Amino acid sequence: MHARWRVFGDGTPVTLVVHGLGATEGEARIPASGLRGTRVVVTLPGHGAAQDAPAGYWNYGSVASDVLAVADEVGATQAVGVSLGAGALTRIAAERPDRFQRLALLLPAALDHPREPAAAWAYERLAAAVAADDGGASLHDVLAAEIPPGIEVGDHLDQRARALSRLSEALRALPEQVPVTDAGALSDAIAEVLVIGATGDPVHPASAAKATAAAFRSARLELLESRAPMLTHRRQLRDLLTNFLR
Fold first, then answer.
1. What is the pLDDT of residues 63-100, one digit of tens each?
2. CA distance 230 to 30
3. What residues form DSSP beta bridges with 7?
4. How many Cβ atoms are within 10 Å of 111's Cβ, its own excluded?
5. What residue numbers bound the domain in which 139 lies?
6. How many CB atoms lie within 10 A of CB 173?
7. Whether residue 104 is found in the same domain as residue 207
8. CB contact set of 203 (below 8 Å; sequence gap of 6+)
9. d(Cα 81, Cα 113) in Å, to the nearest integer?
10. Same domain flag for 10 and 128
11. Strands 14-18 and 4-9: what pairing?
12. What distance lies between CA 63 and its chain's CA centroid?
């Protein structure tokens, strides 16, 4: 296992929280805020204090295997995943349909079809910016363009740039992949599912959220009008998650 994790709180339920690609440590903890019981926040390789991922690690199978190992170690009965984390949990639901009782899938980027051109291009821009030999100026500019006007983010851009600078292989590999090859397998999952998508985020298109919700037999879909809901709709996200997972 290459992932690390931290435990917050105690008691039941035990909720696993899996971040997205390039998430800062602060971002990774956002979905855990306000949840009762035990919150287990996973840190994937190449993030935070975790070691860099070994060569060839960045595929949904490897990430899902690490996430499942942590879930089994801590006895998680429910889970929250953001972007890549949502994809990993979707993969687990397809392969182990009885593993979780509740799943909250935030900003899924894909399901079983290749990414839309706008999403693929967004990943290409990030990968090129990480590879640019300009002291991080290109990456900072790309990330700044993602922030909605009027949102104060402090040192978030610098932290996220540092996080993504370790993930060039992931930025190249993951856009070519999908979490599941057969979405029909998700109809066997026993979990109640909440899917939260966004209407203006090119990396996480609303179509992916809609397809993910439709694939489960018991899923609720919420679409937020934002291109960066983790920044603009943090309170609403917290309310949705705490009400669903309480």
1. 999 999 999 999 999 999 999 999 999 999 999 999 99
2. 8
3. 40
4. 22
5. 117-172
6. 16
7. yes
8. 83, 109, 119, 122, 123
9. 19
10. no
11. unpaired
12. 11
